[in-house]
Design brief:
363 residues, alpha/beta, Isopropylmalate Dehydrogenase, 2 domains, two-stranded antiparallel ribbon, binds 3-isopropylmalic acid, binds magnesium ion
């Protein structure tokens, strides 16, 4: 029997509510007599840890994660700690420290979800955004000098390397190739950003030669926002820099109906280090502790984790349980206009997973 070592990092805010829900779904899945088991280890890193220790995670934290097969992450963000400290102290530290260079964000309109675009049905919006996750605008390079003086200077330097650009484009082309439409849009801004983004375009052209069966095009990031709204069906797989994809992925989640249901995978494709899976919604302190957070983003995140572990049947089973739940308006949480609780949705999803007769029966 296979055993997967999973690190859980609930982090802050509603992360503490949705990660246990995700873990419960995984436990129900394993208890069905499947061919695998999970060994969980929980890490209490985040804002509370920071208040006790002065850092978001211990100095040897990355080492503790390296022995795991995957990481299930909740969120990082605390109203009493500056955002750049919580982010750089935990989530970005893990993404960069474990070289999780491909941030993968699927968006589609799940059954029962009311999406905002008229004339756009579920078949028209089925995207995967691939976000460069270790460099670019989030390289961390830069600084502030002469603080507080009129001559103060502040820089955030966007750093793009040939190696970093090539590996993310290659990942995106490969992903596009694995999807039925074999269609990739490379997002750029090479009209205004005349150095790094020109290199980005050139590398896309070079990498494309290795994928003759993938149809690809190029879109400026500003025009891309309009295209996502006006011609959603013209898109399938999308690759963009760290910041461009950060913005486009929020738009994608909103167009798919809710920021509460989207998942993210921070992938280290070479599998030397574990990959990390998280819902995109963030810590949402305004609803924390009320039991009304939407756990669907975490369940979908669990699906991505199972896919990464090559447990495709199990992933399909959890996805079927999610779609069964979203199709029922009584199981919609407040973000979707309903009044269901985290526990209601979790119970329904877990019951559906438990009831599935065989891996394929649920697919
Ligand atoms: C995301 C988030 C983060 C980011 C925030 C919390 C800094 O928006 O995961 O997209 O910009 O990367
Ligand atoms: Mg974002």
């Amino acid at each position: 029997m296979k055993r997967y070592r999973i690190a859980t990092i609930p982090g802050d805010g509603i992360g503490k509510e949705v990660v246990p829900a995700g873990r419960q779904a995984l436990e129900v899945l394993a208890a069905r007599g499947s061919e695998f088991r999970f060994e969980f280890e929980d890490f209490d890193w985040g804002g509370d840890y920071y208040r006790r220790h002065g850092s978001m995670m211990p100095a040897d934290g990355l080492e503790a994660l390296k022995g795991k097969d995957a990481i299930l992450f909740g969120s990082a963000g605390d109203p009493h700690i500056p955002d750049h400290i919580t982010l750089w102290g935990l989530r970005l530290k893990i993404c960069q420290g474990l070289d999780q260079y491909a941030n993968v964000r699927p968006a589609r309109i799940l059954p029962g979800i009311d999406a905002p675009l008229k004339r756009c049905g579920p078949a028209d919006l089925n995207w995967v955004i691939v976000r460069e996750n270790t460099e670019g605008e989030y390289s961390g390079a830069g600084g502030r000098v002469h603080q507080g003086f009129p001559i103060e200077v502040a820089t955030d330097l966007s750093v793009m390397t040939r190696a970093g650009t090539e590996r993310i484009q290659r990942y995106a082309f490969r992903l596009a190739q694995s999807r039925p439409r074999k269609l990739l849009t490379v997002v750029t801004k090479s009209n205004a950003q005349r150095h790094a983004m020109v290199m980005w375009d050139e590398i896309a052209q070079e990498v494309a030669k290795d994928f003759p069966d993938v149809a690809w095009d190029k879109e400026m990031v500003d025009a891309m926002t309009a295209r996502m709204v006006n011609r959603p069906a013209s898109l399938d797989t999308i690759v963009a820099t760290n910041l461009h994809a950060d913005i486009l992925s929020d738009l994608a989640a909103a167009l798919a109906g809710s920021l509460g249901i989207g998942p993210t995978a921070n992938i280290h494709p070479e599998r030397v280090y574990p990959s990390m899976f998280e819902p995109i919604h963030g810590s949402a302190f305004d609803i924390m502790g009320k039991g009304i957070a939407n756990p669907v983003g975490t369940f979908w995140t669990v699906v991505m984790m199972l896919e990464h572990l090559d447990e495709a049947d199990a992933a399909r089973r959890v996805m079927a349980a999610i779609e069964h739940a979203t199709a029922n308006p009584k199981l919609h949480t407040r973000d979707l206009g309903g009044s269901a609780t985290t526990a209601d949705v979790t119970e329904a999803v877990c019951a559906h997973i438990a009831a599935a007769k065989s891996p394929l029966a649920a697919a």
